[in-house]
Amino acid sequence: MQEEIKQYISVILKEWQPLRAELPQDVIVILRNIAEEQSDNLAHRFYESLFKDPAISRHLSYELVEEQLSRSLSKWVKAILTQDESQFEVLAQQQYHVGGVHARIGIPVEFVQRGARQLKYGIYDYVTDNNITTALGLQVMHYAAMAIDIAIEMMSHAYAMSHYRATRNEEAYRMHVLMNNAYQEQGKQQSALSSWENSVIYGLVSGVHQTEPLIKIAESNFGLWFRHKCARQFGENDQIQQIRQLMTTIDEKMAHLDITAVIPVEKMQDLLRTIHACCQKIGTYMEMLFNDVSHMQDGKDALTNLLNKRYLPIVLKHEVSLAMENHLPLSVAIIDVDFFKKVNDEWGHSVGDRALTHIANLLSDNIRASDYVFRYGGEEFMIVLVEAGRSEAYTLLERIRRIVSSTPFEAVSGKILPLTVSIGYTVHDGHPDYNQLLNRADVALYQAKRNGRNRIEQQ
Fold it and tell me: Could you tell me which of 391, 321, 446, 370 has the C-alpha nearest to residue 383?
């Protein structure tokens, strides 16, 4: 992905750098004046246009714009209009960062493009209101419009890539939840397939087909499941296409039956062989599909069986959105096993692994049903505490800290190893970017470790 970004930036800079290098000095001066005199007004105009659409309130608040975003946009305008080609590499990277933030907080690209249009209107108004000559004004407008468009294009590219990754992971998360009982579902559908095959064979052999139509496989319980759930959950792949084709083959064969006549032996044998062979193949492809469910376990940590970081952005994006829309509290905590390296060094990695599993189980057993617990990496875990403000989060986390420190862990037979954890947590402050939560929780964890470990700190 990073290589794709580098290549894209390289292409963009080949267009942008010559554009800036060829600007006359008097045009550069005017652009600088606009940046110095109008950047705040342009930022205000940008957000004012967005808030005319009630839908923006799902993503941004007036308070957030006033306190943080308006200043950031003002700086962005100055950079776009005034930085020269030697600084474009860094400037381009910043556009990708901004685009990634927009994707995380879910601001639609069209909102950004709408606001960018207002920036151009504002610059045009400045040019016309200050009696700038037509020739100079055209050059100023040309560069400003091109620079804004180039920056928005890079943001949009970053947004598209982030959105694609998020969509893919969200689908995987949905599958992970839906298919938690994959093996039971596999057995249930294999049974439904066999039941349909047996009923059709009985109907053909006994002559029932002469008095009542046989159920097509597409209309059977298995067929309904395949059409409404299986294809949607597993997505279009080779196995799905093969199963669909086999079902079509069966139903087309059955469609040619003359239900009023006795079927000749040869034709009956051919039909039975076709149905059985197709059902066997469908069963094989079904097995392949459900075996592939193992890829969903990419979202689970193999050691602790907790969710891993792959699904963290999906959960945080969802919970931050709920918190903002419904004015609910939300807290995030990072938990670190104290002196874990010493455990590994003195007792070996197998004991270290069991220690992590031990703590993971304690966390899972002692969070609320609505909370999320993740293996965050190494000896770190993360808990997302929904609808929990500062005091409630502290109470819940302190309970967990005490349980960990008071629950015996047997390193080897007869040898109890004391384990403790340090916890850093933070409370959602209204910012739509969940990375802010992660960064503050990380700072709080650092404070907890620096202040003696086996304690909780809040940032």
Answer: 370
Quick one: which of 316, 309, 335, 329 has its CA closest to 424?
A: 335
Largest CA distance in the chain: 97
Strands 380-386 and 372-377: antiparallel
3-state secondary structure of 412: strand
Cα separation, 390 vs 329, whole angstroms:
8
Q: Residue 7's pLDDT band (boundaries 50, 70, 90)?
A: confident
* 199 is a domain residue: yes
Same domain, 245 and 369: no
Q: Could you give the residue ranges of the DSSP H alpha helices within 338-416?
A: 340-347, 349-366, 390-406
> CA 389, 392, 395, 398: dihedral to nearest 10 degrees?
-30
CA distance 158 to 153: 9
For the segment 209-225, what is each residue's pLDDT rounded down to a tens digit? 667 778 899 888 898 88
Torsion of CA 241, 246, 250, 256, to 10 degrees: 70
Residue 194 has which token pair? Answer: 């066999």
Q: 130 and 48, same structural domain?
A: yes
Do 80 and 17 sit in the same domain of this protein? yes
Q: What is the dihedral sign for C-alpha 307, 308, 314, 319?
A: positive
How many Å apart are CA 309 and CA 52, to the nearest integer?
A: 37
Residue type, 187: G
The answer to whether the pTM exceeds 0.70 is: no
DSSP 216-236: PGGGSHHHHHIIIIIHHHH-S
Residues 122 and 143 grouped into a single domain: yes
Regarding whether 144 and 197 lie in a shared domain, the answer is no
Q: Which tens digits make up the pLDDT trace of 377-410?
A: 889 999 999 888 998 899 999 999 999 999 999 8
Q: Do 22 and 171 fall within a single domain?
A: yes
Per-residue pLDDT of 64-88, as tens digits, reads: 767 777 888 888 889 889 988 888 8
How far is Cα 24 from Cα 15, in angstroms, rounded to an integer? 17
Angstrom distance (rounded) from CA 48 to CA 46: 6
